[in-house]
Design brief:
Layout lengths: L2 H32 L4 H10 L23 H7 L3 H5 L5
Length: 91
Amino acid sequence: MAKDPVRKALKLLVLASASTCFLCQMGTISRQYLEGATTASLEYVGRKSLLLPSVTVCSSVPYKWRDAMFTEEDFLEGTFAAEEIFDNVCI
C-alpha cells in the first residue's frame, strides 16, 4: 500500500512535466505560425543571419579536379596549396 501513493505521485510528476513541455512547444509553434514562418523560411532565416566570410580569396573552384577523393592523399593532391592560392592573379 505504501508504493501506491509514491507511484501516483511519480505518474503525476511525469504527466505534469510532459504537459509543460508540450504546452511550451505548442506556444513556440503558434508564435511562429502567427509570424508567417514556414519550414523553409525558418531554415533560411538561420542562414541569413550568418556573417559573411572576412576574406574571400578567389571565386574559382576549390579543388583541382572534380573527381571523388577517397583517401587523404587524394584530398591533399586535389586541393590547392597556400603557395598556389597566394600566387594567383585573382587576388
